[in-house]
Design goal:
Blueprint (H helix, E strand, L loop, with lengths): L1 H5 L4 E2 L32 H5 L7 H7 L6 E2 L2 H7 L8 E4 L4 E7 L10 E7 L8 H13 L8 E7 L2 E7 L6 H7 L7 H19 L5 E2 L8 E3 L5 E3 L6 E2 L8 E2 L4 E2 L5 H6 L1 E2 L1 H17 L15 H9 L5 H4 L10 H14 L10 H8 L19 H21 L5 H29 L4 H8 L9
Parallel strand pairs: 2-6
Antiparallel strand pairs: 1-13, 3-4, 4-5, 5-7, 6-7, 8-11, 9-10, 12-14
Protein name: Kinase-like protein
Length: 456
């Protein structure tokens, strides 16, 4: 851990590998012949990013033909994002800002109208052409239900942009740590973990294995059904093949998620992703960030604080997210804690494969020992208005039945009623916002596994 402290964390990107934005025009970039590549064989990042054999963007486009990737012009993306309006910014990371945009019909053949997320490389940021290229290479070729869909990309002069499907619910980091209005239910957390685990297992089991290298809550995106999809492949790399046990690289990643052996030696294996997955499992279990400088010194590092209690089931109550208010499977929590402890083992060989992780997690959706009780569920404003309006209509009709009399007195009474109804409605809206609760178990029983199982 001493060496770990020596790094200046946020995104670890040492000077030895800090990429410089390639400002060369496509025509001035050196080329390599790629036409002999087998169409069924995935183009590896190493095939195009080695300094000795750089591929031109023209050759890259030719190599990815047939993968339904669109090459956008900068002008098209300006239209899609309303000239990169500040009001359309939905996120920002090491690569740069992310804008929400909308592709209208007839923009180009084969491209349907849809909302999109457009990621723009910050030319003064910590990432550059290599990270942009990694995203195009990996997400342009790999397809999986739990991988975010890359629709296309743009390269003009020094500009590098990526266009993805828009994920309605944003990322897990925001949902778990910043959305105080509604807390993620237990089964939803399990569903998200399963989706992310399936994706990592898919990457690790490719003919040319892929190591994600930057697995964390903010890189797990959620669609409207809480299906998890991994995004941001800028730091992903090809894994070891054949007899090689690891690859050696300069350390990249995010504080609190990187495996200790990788930080200490630079040796990267698939087990580094497993460790990072264990950290996210711990975040889902506890509702705490991997690193939280606002807590006491003993509790700032989540793994160091929680790992000793993961095997002592009598102490689980001390670390499980208190916002769940007991609405979780006790058996499921024990199994999740035991799995997290395995993933976080100091010995990489003692960690499970991601396929084993998936097999352990999937049965947790079927456990039915979640206590019956309230769980906070935020009702939309339209629902509030509709419910309040219906109640006011009923109340109003009842009051009209009981107030037929003298016209003068009725007029005065109506004025009082309007004032009372206004006060009551304001109180009701506040009550509905804070006390609209449903049982996670009831939702699961009513909607079945379709609520928590991905729709393929």
């Amino acid at each position: 851990m001493d060496l770990m402290k020596a790094f200046t964390w946020k995104i670890i990107l040492p000077a030895c590998v800090k990429p410089k934005t390639n400002r060369l025009k496509p025509s001035s970039m050196s080329k390599v012949h790629v036409s002999k590549q087998n169409s069924l064989q995935r183009l590896a990042l190493s095939d195009v990013s080695n300094p000795g054999s750089p591929i031109s963007l023209h050759d890259l486009s030719s190599s990815l033909v047939g993968l339904n990737l669109h090459i956008f012009t900068l002008k098209e993306l300006e239209v899609i994002t309303h000239n990169f309006s500040r009001s359309d910014v939905v996120g920002e990371g090491g690569f740069g800002k992310v804008y929400k945009g909308f592709i209208k019909e007839n923009l180009r053949p084969g491209l349907k109208s849809q909302p999109v997320a457009v990621k723009v490389l910050d030319l003064n940021g910590s990432q550059g052409h290599r990270e942009w290229l990694a995203e195009v290479i990996f997400l342009g070729q790999l397809k999986h239900p739990h991988l975010v869909n890359l629709i296309g990309y743009c390269y003009e002069d020094e500009h590098r942009l990526l266009v993805y499907e828009y994920m309605t619910l944003g990322n897990l980091d925001n949902k778990l740590f910043k959305n105080y209005a509604s807390i993620l239910p237990w089964l939803t957390r399990i569903k998200i973990a399963i989706g992310a685990a399936r994706c990592l297992a898919f990457l690790h089991e490719e003919e040319k294995p892929v190591i994600y290298r930057d697995f964390k809550a903010s890189n797990i995106l959620l669609d409207s059904d809480y299906n998890a999809k991994l995004s941001d492949f800028g730091l992903a790399t090809d894994g070891p093949q054949g007899d090689d046990s690891h690859i050696t690289t300069c350390v990249m990643g995010t504080e609190g998620y990187a495996a200790p052996e990788y930080v200490n030696t630079g040796h990267l294996t698939k087990m580094c992703d497993v460790y990072s997955f264990g950290v996210v499992l711990l975040e889902l279990l506890t509702g705490r960030r991997s690193v939280d400088k606002n807590r006491s010194k003993r509790e700032q590092d989540l793994v160091e604080w929680a790992r000793p209690m993961l095997r002592d089931f009598n102490k689980l109550d001390q670390i499980i997210d208190s916002r769940l208010e007991g609405q979780y499977s006790t058996e499921g929590a024990k199994k999740l804690a035991a799995l997290a402890h395995q993933c976080l083992s100091h010995n990489p060989k003692s960690r499970p494969t991601m396929s084993s992780v998936v097999k352990t997690l999937e049965p947790l959706l079927e456990l039915n020992d979640i206590p019956m009780g309230p769980f906070v569920y935020t009702v939309g404003n339209d629902d509030v208005k509709r419910v309040c309006g219906e109640k006011n209509r009923i109340l109003g009709s009842d009051e009209n039945e009981n107030n037929r009399g003298n016209k003068g007195e009725e007029k005065e009474e109506k004025g009082r009623r309007r004032r009372r109804k206004g006060r009551r409605q304001r109180r009701r809206i506040r009550v509905f916002r804070s006390r609209a609760v449903y049982s996670d178990t009831d939702l699961y029983k009513a909607l079945g596994t379709s609520l928590y199982s991905p729709r393929y």
